[in-house]
């Protein structure tokens, strides 16, 4: 089912533009109706409904088409099942209801909502007319259950606003259908799934419990138990979830999907080792089980926090791209973890001072600010402050040894130069194209290392000097598309996001060159081993994304990131090294070491 409107219209994102589009389609349909071309007029009617399903005039022109065609039954031929536009399917649903085929109409509308859940399809007057005890009793619950199976998969759990508002009229009808057909267990189970997504948890629990308590049959017990467990878990009643799922799984160990639900509930209850035991039994019989295979890796990670399990989860997804549960778990476990799903927070006093200043000053203030520090900090932290307070200066009492301005080995790429202790960019400014791309693409949460790697591929066509230039000549945070002025309130986070993006873009430079002898590898290693700075962290993160996505590079990536960490740890014996905690996490993110090396990595993370 295509989600677009008629090919002669342009779909707009804003509500106002959608309404204008729909009104234009209504006008076109009426003109064509006057000429008698009903098939062409039907296309524009479908486009009008598809652009704005809440526009009364869209359904009025559908009624005019019905009158011209000689009735709803005849009009159905103008909106055949093979129609490609979702708005035309919504029109067909209305016509099915008009000719008394209400079960088919409700089924088709559910499919329409499932295809495009962010539009108010359920606001149609014909649907509201079915929300009565008599009309609901006449509906086929099997049709409703099948429609719900598709609809619930599309709207999220829980469904976001305004999706819940759009789906509310359909949910009202479902409540009536459940009241008239309470013993149709498959439909009631799917209704519980919808109630959960609508955040009506008490109803979701009650409906699923009726199926479990009625014990209509072993297969349906399992479905009911799964729905009850999911609703209880969403309500925070995890121990009850475990009790329900354990009981059914003991009675029927063949219910492997239920076993996964049970294992994940055990993980939520702080008992991941028990969940691993449950899944080991499942995998003994089905080693590549679509949900159990990734779920056991997630639970092992929750049990010992060894990133090796996350890398294994990603590798499983690469081998089995259809196992969507693996992708969901990887995203959930990485999402808010520093250097797995986002940059780490800056610890420098300079960065903290900039944040405090932004709480009481407007970005770009002309006021001069001087910060006195006992030792040097990362030059990027000074740059971050100057992005929002241009007259920000730093005075240092001393330069602690080893000198953080010096690279850990001889390098030829030096983004920073120093006049005494004052850092200045040492490379040319990037092109405007590079600045615009970085402004639009810099993200403060990327989800997973492979997602960051894919995201930065948009920079692959930029010259290397542009990517290096972005590290010290970033877009202004005042121009950032981030919500709620986040980039100006935390300019250090903005700069780190740009630097990570640029370095990961370097990882895509000249991918035709073999990794070991490539310009992209050499450049990232020079940045990694250069002046002690956030750029070192960004380069290490880019290398981590390469290791995650290119297994043949993993030994090399681990060796170089670990070497940079060792140098920082050695320097930390005599002075503060603010990038050391991040480098520890970046070593940990290289989760492909041998079993013998995993314990030291966990110890490293434990110290962090």
What topology emerges from the helices and strands here?
Layout: H1 15-35, H2 38-51, H3 56-69, H4 72-76, H5 86-98, H6 102-115, H7 125-129, H8 133-137, H9 141-154, H10 163-180, H11 185-197, H12 201-214, H13 218-234, H14 238-251, H15 256-268, H16 272-285, H17 292-304, H18 308-319, H19 324-334, H20 349-358, E1 369-373, H21 379-388, E2 392-396, E3 416-419, E4 422-425, H22 432-441, H23 449-455, H24 464-472, H25 486-489, H26 491-506, H27 519-528, H28 534-549, H29 554-571, H30 580-589, H31 595-607
Parallel strand pairs: 1-2
Antiparallel strand pairs: 3-4
**Range of strand content:** under 5%
**Low-pLDDT runs:** 3-13, 594-600
Main beta sheet: 2 strands, parallel
What is the SS-derived class?
A: mainly alpha
Helix content: 55-70%
* Total strand segments: 4
> What best-fitting shape do the alpha-carbon axes yield?
globular
Number of contiguous helices: 31
Q: Mean pLDDT, rounded to whole units? A: 92
Largest beta sheet: strand ordering: 1-2
């Amino acid at each position: 089912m295509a989600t677009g409107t008629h090919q002669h219209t342009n779909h707009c994102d804003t509500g106002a533009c959608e309404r204008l589009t729909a009104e234009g389609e209504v006008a076109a349909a009426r003109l064509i109706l006057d000429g008698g071309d009903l098939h062409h007029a039907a296309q524009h009617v479908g486009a009008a409904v598809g652009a704005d399903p809440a526009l009364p005039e869209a359904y009025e022109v559908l009624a005019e088409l019905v009158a011209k065609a000689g009735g709803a039954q005849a009009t159905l031929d103008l909106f055949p099942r093979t129609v490609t536009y979702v708005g035309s399917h919504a029109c067909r649903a209305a016509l099915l209801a008009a000719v008394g085929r209400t079960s088919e109409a409700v089924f088709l509308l559910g499919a329409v909502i499932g295809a495009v859940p962010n539009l108010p399809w359920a606001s149609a007057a014909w649907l509201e007319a079915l929300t009565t005890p008599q009309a609901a009793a006449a509906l086929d619950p099997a049709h409703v259950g099948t429609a719900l199976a598709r609809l619930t998969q599309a709207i999220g759990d829980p469904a976001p606003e305004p999706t819940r508002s759009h789906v509310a009229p359909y949910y009202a009808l479902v409540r009536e259908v459940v009241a008239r057909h309470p013993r149709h267990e498959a439909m009631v189970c799917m209704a519980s799934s919808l109630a959960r997504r609508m955040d009506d948890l008490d109803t979701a629990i009650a409906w699923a419990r009726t199926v479990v308590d009625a014990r209509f049959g072993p297969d349906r017990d399992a479905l009911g138990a799964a729905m009850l467990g999911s609703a209880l878990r969403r309500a925070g009643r995890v121990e009850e979830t475990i009790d329900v799922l354990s009981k059914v799984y003991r009675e029927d160990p063949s219910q492997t999907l239920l076993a996964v639900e049970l294992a994940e509930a055990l993980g939520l209850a702080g008992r991941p080792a028990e969940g691993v035991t449950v899944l080991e039994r499942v995998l003994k019989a089905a080693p590549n089980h679509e949900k159990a295979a990734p779920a056991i890796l997630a639970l092992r990670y929750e049990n010992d926090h060894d990133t090796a399990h996350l890398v294994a989860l990603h590798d499983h997804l690469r081998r089995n791209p259809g196992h969507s549960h693996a992708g969901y778990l990887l995203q959930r476990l990485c999402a808010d973890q520093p250097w797995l799903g986002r940059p780490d927070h800056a610890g420098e006093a300079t960065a903290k001072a900039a944040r405090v200043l932004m709480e009481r000053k407007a970005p770009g203030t002309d006021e001069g600010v001087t910060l006195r520090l006992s030792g040097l900090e990362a030059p990027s932290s000074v740059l971050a402050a100057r992005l929002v307070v241009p007259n920000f200066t730093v005075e240092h009492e001393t330069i602690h040894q080893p000198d953080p301005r010096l690279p850990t080995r001889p390098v030829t790429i030096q983004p920073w130069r120093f006049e005494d202790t004052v850092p200045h960019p040492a490379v040319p400014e990037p092109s405007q194209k590079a600045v615009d791309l970085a402004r639009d693409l810099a993200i403060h949460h990327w989800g997973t290392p492979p997602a960051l790697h894919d995201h930065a591929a948009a920079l692959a066509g930029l010259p290397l000097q542009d990517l290096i230039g972005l590290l010290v000549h970033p877009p202004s945070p005042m121009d950032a598309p981030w919500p709620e002025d986040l980039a100006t309130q935390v300019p250090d986070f903005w700069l780190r996001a740009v630097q990570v993006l640029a370095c990961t873009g370097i990882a895509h430079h000249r991918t035709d060159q073999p990794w070991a002898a490539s310009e992209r590898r050499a450049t990232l290693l020079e940045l990694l081993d250069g002046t002690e700075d956030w750029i070192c962290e960004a380069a290490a993160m880019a290398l981590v994304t390469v290791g995650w996505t290119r297994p043949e590079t993993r030994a090399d990536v681990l060796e170089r990131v670990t070497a940079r960490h060792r140098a920082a740890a050695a320097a930390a014996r005599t002075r503060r090294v603010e990038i050391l905690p991040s480098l520890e996490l970046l070593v940990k993110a290289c989760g492909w070491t041998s079993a013998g090396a995993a314990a030291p990595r966990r110890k490293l993370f434990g110290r962090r």
